[in-house]
Design a protein that fits this description.
Blueprint (H helix, E strand, L loop, with lengths): L2 E4 L4 E4 L8 H13 L13 H5 L3 H12 L2 H4 L8 H10 L3 E6 L6 H11 L6 E4 L17 H8 L3 E4 L2 H9 L3 E5 L17 E3 L2 H8 L9 E8 L2 E8 L4
Parallel strand pairs: 1-9, 2-3, 2-5, 3-4, 5-6, 6-7
Antiparallel strand pairs: 8-9
Helix pairs in contact: 5-9, 7-8
């Protein structure tokens, strides 16, 4: 009797801030309240906050640490543009769903609470890249790029809103959906030489890139030769 080999389901990695929650909006509200500024989302033409706020990169880092201690951070809102519904559909279709975030590991508990509250039972793991560390934090924590994590865990598709991360991952052959919510994320609208697909809503993500199967049949099975014997390959309906 031939051996049965099931092709594994795809792994989808999702960015957190700006893709699943309104972190930048909360950060700007906090900054305006704390420093009497008037920044809006449309002012953010770069992901490098210090280039917009002024001051040094270290200054911006220290501001973000203050933001972490505020109610603005605690009460960040999830993105409600069909994100949860789309992720539930992907989960039901047996995709492996993980989060890869630029966040630092010292806010892991706060991050987990947010995900458990707003995206319960969706994600299998959260990977913390420890990016944007202060000078002192660099002596204690180790940074790792999203591309490195994607390669390590075998990510097939990345959904992210940061052009830098998206471009690097695409250069390694990972399929990338660059999330530009309603066309308002000016920091990721610069040209990119890498092959990636821009999407503006989670509804677009699920309907255009993960369409429902056209047939109620779940599997396609066929025999192949392997060495001296046969094997039965079961291709489950996870093709994008």
């Amino acid at each position: 009797m031939p051996s049965i080999v099931r092709e594994p389901p795809k792994t989808i990695a999702v960015n957190l801030d700006g893709t699943l929650c309104h972190t930048l909006e909360a950060l700007l509200h906090w900054h305006n309240e704390t420093f009497h500024t008037h920044y809006e989302l449309q002012d953010m033409t770069t992901a490098d906050l210090w280039k917009v706020w002024g001051g040094s990169q270290e200054d911006a880092c220290q501001k973000i640490r203050q933001f972490y201690q505020s109610d603005y951070f605690t009460n960040i809102r999830p993105i409600n543009d069909f994100a949860l519904e789309a992720l539930k559909m992907l989960k039901k279709r047996k995709f492996h769903l993980v989060i890869i975030t630029s966040r630092q590991q010292f806010i892991a508990e706060e991050t987990k609470r947010f995900v458990d509250k707003h995206y319960p039972g969706i994600f299998e793991s959260i990977y913390f890249c420890n990016l944007g560390l202060s000078e002192s934090e660099q002596l204690e924590f180790i940074s790792k790029s999203k591309a490195a994590f994607c390669q390590d865990i075998g990510v097939d598709v990345l959904i992210d809103n940061q052009l830098e991360h998206a471009s690097e991952c695409a250069s390694f052959g990972i399929e990338v959906l660059l999330y530009d919510r309603l066309g308002k994320y000016r920091w990721n609208q610069h040209p990119c030489s890498q092959p990636l697909t821009r999407v503006k809503t989670w509804r677009d993500i699920i309907h255009q890139h993960f369409p429902r199967p056209s047939s109620p049949l779940k599997n396609m099975c066929f025999s192949t030769l392997q060495g001296d014997g046969h094997r039965l390959v079961v291709q489950e309906d996870w093709i994008v």
